[in-house]
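FW: tagging you since you asked about this chain on Friday. Here's the raw sequence from the shared folder, copied in full. Didn't touch anything.
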Amino acid sequence: MRLSKSMIAAAALIALTGTALAAGEATIEARKQNMKAIGGEMKAIAAVLKGESSDTASLPTRTKTIAEAAAKSKALFQEKALGGETAAKPEIWGEWDRFAAGLDAMQVETAKLAAIDPTDKAAFGAQVGVVGKICKNCHDTYKEKK
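HL: got it, structure written out here
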């Protein structure tokens, strides 16, 4: 059987589309895991601050994890990947400069949080509040509600 040029081109296009979809899904999964890491650590920190947990020894590790994840966030959102299961709104890329500025602020403020001694409860708690507000502002604007 002899394949025509159009059949070969169509097969190549299908293969490339499948590769692009798989890459988009991998990007979405990486974003989700990164955000889940931040959210999980923030919840654990909040539990300590509310007195629901006594695991104060883990706070430096938790804040370091948050800062490291925040540092990755901007790169993870640069690719506009919306296929699959994602709560990311398309406005992220339509308002990229504003969104990126929020991620930059998150990176700066989470680094500050990681640098604070958690035994300084007032400073630590205040900085957790700053980071939480940044998260909330972004989620309110750029994350689909469930």
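FW: The two ends are 51 Å apart (CA to CA).
HL: agreed, and The first helix runs from residue 5 to 49.
FW: great, closing this out.
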